[in-house]
Amino acid sequence: EELVAKAIAPVKREYLRPPPLSNVVKEKKSKRQLKRERQQEQKSALHICPEVAKTGNVSSCRYNVNCRFSHDLEAFKAQKPADLEGNCPFCPYGLACRFSGTHKKKSSEMNGLTKDVQKLLWKNKMSFSRADAQLKLLGILQIQPLKKADVSLKLHPREKKLIDFRGKLYLAPLTTVGNLPFRRVCKALGADITCGEMAMCTNLLQGQASEWALLRRHSSEDLFGVQICGAYPDTVARTVDLIDHECTVDFIDINMGCPIDIVVNKGAGSSLLTKPMRMKNIIHAASGTVDKPITVKVRTGYFEGRNRIDSLIADISHWGASAVTIHGRSRQQRYSKLADWDYIYQCASKAPDVLQVLGNGDVFSYLDWDKHKSDCPALSTCMIARGSLIKPWIFTEIKEQRHWDISSGERLNILKDYVRCGLEHWGSDTKGVETTRHFLLEWLSYTYRYIPVGLLDVIPQRLNWRPPSYFGRNDLETLMASDSAADWIRISEMLLGKVPVGFTFAPKHKSNAYDRAENG
């Protein structure tokens, strides 16, 4: 009881061990130094031209001597790292592939950015007729009169396509770690609804390939949405128009709760909670542009102690949103303290029948899920965020109504599935292997916080509990409990081979500082 009161996980005494000595953090490299290293790497024989690697023919590259990559096939073969075990999952990489198995040519992903669309966006020649017509109708945008053919007849809000979220297990959009391979793992473990990582509207409209990658969808994601974030009605409406035209999605979620400074300072994310008229115009413009359901994700308010979503809940429905997800914390609160579920219930009870209300915050066991659903029947479902990062089998636990004392071997198999999906998504050449490793390490910076059920004096584990230093029931379980990046790298080497010389890793999200996980 004393440990729980201090938010320290009550691990059984026989498994406890003294905390390890703190690791010395290496000095971070400057941007100039990193750029110089990248330029040197490109000149290396290991950085083979993709076209030459694919065909095995030096003359196949159209840039010839002007190509910034190496064309020295013999030098590449001499320096290429040893192949990884197993078969190639998906391969357009030819000689650069790190697998010696059969090459597959078919991808099961969709929502890619075509070169034609990218060029139109770069040249600012993309047509947004539906969005511009809606913005003009709302008096938000002054534009030239449109031809009759350009103005599409919009469905009445009640006739819009709807999604029934009730009772479904919803994997939250999670920045960095909620990538396509991770979502595939969660789908296999029981998630019903998945959503892409938050994408910035301005970056999508500029045709940035890295931002468009956040919209990609796997064929296994049968109920899938994308989450976008923007500060103004015109950029959001045009982004919604573009996504509806170029991508296959079931719903579009607008983020109005992201607490990150760089987003808030641009007037987007949770900054919108202080501007209800801007919220109205954004939701109104987006919902009037497309027939797909528009959903919204918010926090309780901007400032702690000054909740305001309950006063806007009916308006959010009238503005055209089909569903709203409420994260039970304010922007100022970030991820400190527990989520305020009583306030979420209050909002759900005030919502009109046509608006589905979803709750979000600290769901970490099937008991949490059951309690929220029974305490507030008006709640459609719960969104699961950080809990899924620490133990993605939470979806299995909820569906099977049990605490799963999962073994370290079973957890390693989940990591193997992730790596397989990662190599399919990011590629099986050296760059793809190292990208997969990077995102695996980002994920491991969360998973170490899981404490096996059999080691706890009190179950279930709570999301805000800090794990003490402990021994697992075998060496692998002990390794998986380590908070050291060196041990996470060891796990990655078990799955992806040795890291390159001089490799270092520091997690993007300091998940061990329990209030700083940067997820919208």
From TrEMBL:
A zinc finger (C3H1-type) spans 48-74. The keyword Metal-binding applies. One of its GO terms (biological process) is mRNA processing. Keywords: Flavoprotein, FMN, Metal-binding, mRNA processing, NAD, NADP, Oxidoreductase, Repeat, tRNA processing, Zinc, Zinc-finger. Its EC number is 1.3.1.-. Residues 48-74 form the C3H1-type domain. Residues 20-41 are annotated as: Disordered. One of its GO terms (molecular function) is tRNA-dihydrouridine47 synthase activity. Belongs to the dus family. Dus3 subfamily. This is tRNA-dihydrouridine(47) synthase [NAD(P)(+)]. It comes from Platanus acerifolia.
